[in-house]
Write a structure and sequence with these properties.
Blueprint (H helix, E strand, L loop, with lengths): L1 H5 L11 H12 L15 E4 L5 E8 L2 E5 L3 E2 L1 H17 L3 E7 L4 H6 L3 E12 L11 H12 L2 E6 L8 H15 L13 H4 L4 E6 L2 E9 L7 E8 L7 H16 L3 E8 L11 H12 L6 H9 L4 E9 L5 H13 L2 H4 L3
Parallel strand pairs: 3-5, 10-11
Antiparallel strand pairs: 1-2, 2-3, 2-4, 5-12, 6-11, 6-12, 7-8, 8-9, 9-10
């Protein structure tokens, strides 16, 4: 009790304001990672380096201070921010967590006294090599032609043209959520809101001239990669509609000069099943293969694999030991949007 009385009060829930988001946009434009765009979702806190040349996005769930991805910006600024976030969370009696980080900065996180836990693999398609030609692309070619025969057409709508489509997009989004019997996710995934969507270009599929599927585009000024965040389609969408959207978007990205298309992470993919592998790898591998009732982990990996991507590991870094299960719950609840929502498919 005395320890709790002496501990600084836990910060109240807060998110970045307009000025912070404007500062972040300038750094996002210079980033090679499209995940940096998640800072614009309006559901995170932002911490900037002293020089203003880097930021880290994070949110607090119970006692976990959870950052999404590696810090965005300069190497020096990123190193400063990793330590500062650790210092701030320690001051408030919390623990520092970095979710969905790459392998490049693992040594820095280890220096903080954190342990790395592989949580999956990210699929990235080299766009210079992407086409619908050849025997290995037969499945994609057939899906593309079938959607076209069923009346599908594709366009990329610039950000300034998205507002006029909002009524149709909201209708599609509501229909999708209803069909999936689910609610909006948070933190690592954007949620439908007009304020969020109007910030980005939009990939739009029409059927018979009417909007039937969409995805907002995450881009960066360096054109290192292109990706999507929110993806929705309604009951009138042609068969293979999402295949069609991805194919058209990759072809569009190739012509626009983007180097790769990021298909996102396949959770729990690539964990070692060997008896001598770490316990988490063995448990995660079992969930990946036999947890289909709750989440189609293996099916998601198979879907992304048909685009022939390269796979890159992604990690959660946090203190190990008995604190780790609580951290995993905190991250899951944060993304789900609440404890109740965590158990909604």
């Amino acid at each position: 009790i005395l320890l709790n009385m002496l501990r600084p009060a836990r910060p109240q829930p807060a998110v970045a304001g307009p000025e912070e988001l404007a500062r972040a946009r300038a750094l996002i434009e210079r980033s090679d990672s499209t995940l940096a765009n998640a800072a614009l979702a309006g559901d995170k806190r932002l911490l900037f380096s002293e020089a203003g040349d880097a930021f880290v996005m994070y949110q607090i769930a119970r006692s976990s201070w959870i950052a999404l991805g590696d810090p965005v910006g300069s190497k020096e600024g990123a190193e400063e921010l990793v330590w500062r976030l650790r210092e701030i969370s320690d001051h408030h009696g919390g623990q520092t967590v970095f979710y969905q980080v790459g392998a490049e900065r693992l040594a820095l996180y280890v220096d903080l006294g954190l342990a790395a836990l592989k949580i999956g693999e990210e699929a990235r398609v080299p766009l210079a090599e992407f086409s619908l030609e050849g025997a290995t692309r037969a499945e994609l070619r057939q899906a593309h032609r079938r959607a076209q025969r069923d009346g599908a057409s594709f366009e990329v709508v610039p950000a300034e043209g998205v507002e006029a489509l909002m009524p149709a997009l909201e209708r599609i989004s509501n229909a999708w959520l209803s069909a999936k019997s689910t609610g909006e996710k948070r933190f690592s995934i954007g949620a439908f809101s007009r304020a969020y969507l109007r910030q980005f270009p939009l990939a739009l599929v029409r059927s018979g001239g009417a909007p039937t599927a969409f995805a907002n585009l995450w881009t960066t000024g360096t054109k290192a990669e292109l990706s999507v965040d929110l993806m929705r389609f309604d009951a009138d969408a042609p068969r293979g509609c999402m295949d069609f959207l991805f194919i058209e978007l990759m072809l569009w990205g190739r012509e626009a000069g983007y180097r790769s298309f990021n298909l996102g992470m396949a959770p729990l993919s690539g964990l070692d099943a060997h008896p001598l592998a770490p316990a988490w790898h063995r448990v995660g591998n079992l969930i990946f293969r036999y947890g289909e009732h709750f989440y189609n982990f293996e099916g998601l990996r198979r879907y992304k694999a048909k685009f022939d991507p390269t796979w890159e590991p992604r990690y959660l870094v946090a203190r190990g030991g008995i604190a780790l299960p609580r951290v995993l719950v905190d991250v899951s609840v944060l993304i789900a949007g609440g404890v109740k929502e965590l158990f909604t498919r």
